[in-house]
Amino acid sequence: MADRSVSGPDCPFCGGRIPWPRVMYTEVFSCPSCATGLQVPDFYKRRQQVLTFVIVTVVGYAAGARGVMLIIIILAAFAPVSGIVWYTTRTFMPPPLMVNETVDHSSPDERAQRNDG
């Protein structure tokens, strides 16, 4: 059962709550309750990047930047705005977590049985 006093998404495998600092958007991370390997799907990361690009482009254009100056603003502002977007959107559009299929989630006893027989 998920600890509701901790802010973060729930593990899709065991239902345990994962604190936000443990959620890694770019690599596999483990659930603190069951040690299952989890990941944020690529479609979520792409959606966040597109949202960031649109925000930076619209704000730069609205500020009067055109041509090369707009490109420079997009390149300079993308990383900091991306951090803000990821931090703020996680509350109303939290990342759907999925079990990483490349990690063996079986118990040590099950792994030992497979190796023995």
Unreliable residue stretches = none
First-last Cα distance: 35 Å
Name the beta content range.
5-15%
CA radius of gyration: 19 Å
Which shape, going by the Cα principal axes? elongated
Number of H/I helices: 3
Fraction of helical residues:
40-55%
Order of helices and strands: EEHHEH
**How many strands appear in the DSSP assignment?**
3
Explain what the structure shows.
The chain is mostly helical and 117 residues long. It has 2 domains: 1-39, no CATH class; 43-96, no CATH class. Helices cover 45% and strands 6% of the residues. The chain has 3 helices and 3 strands; from the N terminus they run ββααβα. It has helices at 42-62, 67-89, 108-116, and strands at 29-30, 37-39, 98-99. It has a 3-stranded antiparallel β-sheet with strand order 1-2-3, with no helix packed on it. A hairpin with a 6-residue loop joins strand 1 and strand 2. Helix 1 packs across helix 2. It is elongated and about 65 Å long. The mean pLDDT is 86.
